[in-house]
Every structure is written in structure tokens, then in C-alpha cells.
Amino acid sequence: MLIVKSLLTEWGLKVALRIRPIFIVLASALGVSAGCSAKPPQSCSEYSSELNKKTYIQKSKNISLQTKKIWRERGGWGGIVADNKGNLIISRSPNGSSIATSSDGGETWVKNLRIDKLSRQASTSGGNLINGGCGIIYYLSPKNKAIYTTTNGGINWSKRRANILLPNGYQENEELIAAMQPGIRLHQGKMKGRLITPARLWGLENNNLPENRKEHTGLALYSDNQGETWTSSAMLDQKGIGESGIAELGDGVLLYNTREHMTAGGRFSAASIDQGITWEAMKRVEIPDGPIGSKYGLMGGLIRLPIKGEDYLIFSNVDSKVISTGTVNSGQSDVRGRENLTLWLSKDGGKSWTCKYSIHKGGSGYSSLASGLYKDQAYIYVLYEGRESNSSNWGVYFSRTSLSAILESKECSDK
């Protein structure tokens, strides 16, 4: 019996060793491989290095605003990520599950690629991109209970199972991490290398009906094993919120910035001093949350620029005139007045916002941000929904600009 078992084991091993190369080749051709965690190396300065302020500003000069239309109709809520080699990935989620990639800083694009070509569930919409640094990009898909990884700019993706641990009594929802600023990899502190993404809970009723939005709240999901397990942070102390961004400041403090759905008071922000485990009390911030006067808010992008010893933040949202919302109930969808997508600059980690720079004058919607070096120039990348003035045709647009363009704009209060 032992001899038979040994022979069977040896035979199985030989078959497995013969089949494995065929499987790997097949999976690679289809764009999905199995099991590679793509742990970031300890040093990868060619992908992620901070510059001193003078050098960074110099590299951001002589960059004019450039805009391209990527897709028709609304979408692009899945965000944009970039590295320092000119590689960019944008996600069309939720209006389709395809992505587009660029290897030249956004000058040209390969469109309508798919993250998961093997899954029986064709759609990976409803997830979020996460910039893992060192040229490694993740895509977390709660719907497919999977974490996808690419190390070649989005052309091929590996796939592993992901476990998401939510607070007791709460359930996953189709927009758990959708319509968020992409997640980040932490670069400082005891948990350096941690992946973290903003997330939202739809309350105990777990729905997005207008009457239940007052129960929505936010939190973060973080992973210390390259995306296989995601632990929930403490919940934020504010309800009626969702669609958020997280930035890591130069001293390791995390800044959480979120949309509100219930009042015309503007956005909320909170800080974490323990790398995303808990959050301090939320506070109002002076930057817009949709059109001034809107009770419904609007998703916006948030990033920290890679400037050594400085906390230069960029925020994106619309800069619209006051609209009347007297007939709109709290939590009720209201997209009126969304125009003039604009970037705001803070030089002090979000305490004040002293410059603004218009990107798109026409109708505007959701937006997301990234930054990166390409050909020795420092770019700010913007992905957003837009439509031209006097047009009802929406599209997903990509723009690139720079810190110098913002600093040289006419709308800086600290010149």
C-alpha cells in the first residue's frame, strides 16, 4: 500500500511539473496569472522618490494644460494611478469594467483592456485601484473577492483571493470602495508598506436609497500582506458621508477627506496618527463639495505631491455658483450646477487652500488625481467626467498639468 501511494505521489508530481509551465503560458496569454503577491522591493527610487521643493517646481515648469477624451458617456470613477516612468492606468468603473493604459505620460492610450479575462463574472466594476509603489499597481474587487496585481503597467494582471473583514453587523455593498480616490502604499512608520483605501458602509440597512443615506458612513480598509486580507479601521464619527480620499502627509499622519450627502455645509476631514487604525473627530474643511449650496456633494480627488519636507496637497472638485436647493430633500440626488472642474492647492497639509486652477469650464462630474515624473518633468494627472458647454453629451476626460501652472494662476491668495 505504501509503495502504491508513493508511486501515485511521484506520478502526480511529474504530471504537475509538466502541466505547470503550460498553465503559466496560457494564463499569461490571457492576461491573468496565479498566486504572485508582487511584494515591493525595499528600494525602488526609480519609481517613487521625493524631490526638494526647488527641484520639483523647476521640473513642473513649461507644462501647458493638455486634455484628451478617453471614453464616451459617464464613468472613470475607478480612478487613475501613475508612476515615475510615464505609466498610467485609468479605470472606467462603474460604466463598464475596462481600463486604459498609457506608457508615455498620457500622450497615447491603449483602451478597453480587461483586468480579469478568466473570471466567470466578466465585470470587475465597483473596485478601486491602489498604487503599491515601485511600479506595482493593485485592483481590489469586492465583487469578485479578489485582488489583482500588475507589474507591467496594466497589460497583464495576476489574481489572488482577497478577504475583507468588515465591522460586526455590516455587509459588503456594490460601492464599498467604488468612486474613491485610489488607495496608496504607506511610506513611513512601523507599518511602512501597508496598503490602504477609503471605503464606505451603507448602514445596517445596506442600501443606497435616498432615505437611507443619512446612515452611510466611512472608514478605511488596510492590508499588511499585499492585499490578501483587508482589515477595517475604526468607523468615522460622521454619518451621511461617502466617496473619499486618503493622503499620507510627510510626518506619517493620514488625512481622510470625504464627500457629504446631507447638508450644504461642505466636506469633512479627519486625521489618523496610527497609520489608519483609528481616526480623530471629523472637521469641516473649506474646499467645495459640489456646487456651493448643494446638499448632495460630489466625489473629488486628493493627493500629496512628492516634495521632500513639504505637504503640498492637490484637491479636485467643481467651482460653481450658488444654486437653489430649497426643494431638494437631504440625501436626494441633485446634480444641478456641476460645472468648472478646478484644482485647489494647499501648502500646509490641508489647513488652508490658497490657489485654484480651472481645468474644464463646462459641465463636470466625478474626478480623481495622480502625479508622476515623465521625461524629467513633474506632472499632475486628472481623470474626470465632463461635457462641453451647451452639450448634453458626457465623456471621460484625461488632463495633465503641473504645480507651476497652479502657482502661476491668477487665483492664488498668497502671492
Salient structural properties:
10% helix; single chain; 25 strands; mainly beta; 10-stranded mixed β-sheet; 7-stranded antiparallel β-sheet; disordered N terminus
What does this molecule look like?
- The protein is mainly β.
- 10% of the residues lie in helices and 36% in strands.
- The protein has three helices and 25 strands.
- Strands 1-10-9-8-7-12-13-14-15-11 form a ten-stranded mixed beta sheet.
- A hairpin with an 8-residue loop joins strand 20 and strand 21 (313-318).
- The protein is globular.
- It starts with a helix and ends in an 8-residue tail after the last helix.
- Mean pLDDT is 86; it is low at 1-36.
How would you summarize the topology of this molecule?
Elements: H1 2-30, E1 32-34, H2 53-59, E2 66-72, E3 79-82, E4 88-91, E5 98-102, E6 110-114, E7 128-131, E8 137-141, E9 146-150, E10 157-161, E11 163-165, E12 183-185, E13 195-201, E14 217-223, E15 229-232, E16 241-248, E17 254-260, E18 268-272, E19 283-284, E20 302-304, E21 313-318, E22 339-346, E23 355-374, E24 377-387, E25 395-401, H3 403-407
Parallel strand pairs: 1-10, 7-12, 11-15
Antiparallel strand pairs: 2-25, 3-4, 4-5, 5-6, 7-8, 8-9, 9-10, 12-13, 13-14, 14-15, 16-17, 17-18, 18-19, 20-21, 21-22, 22-23, 23-24, 24-25
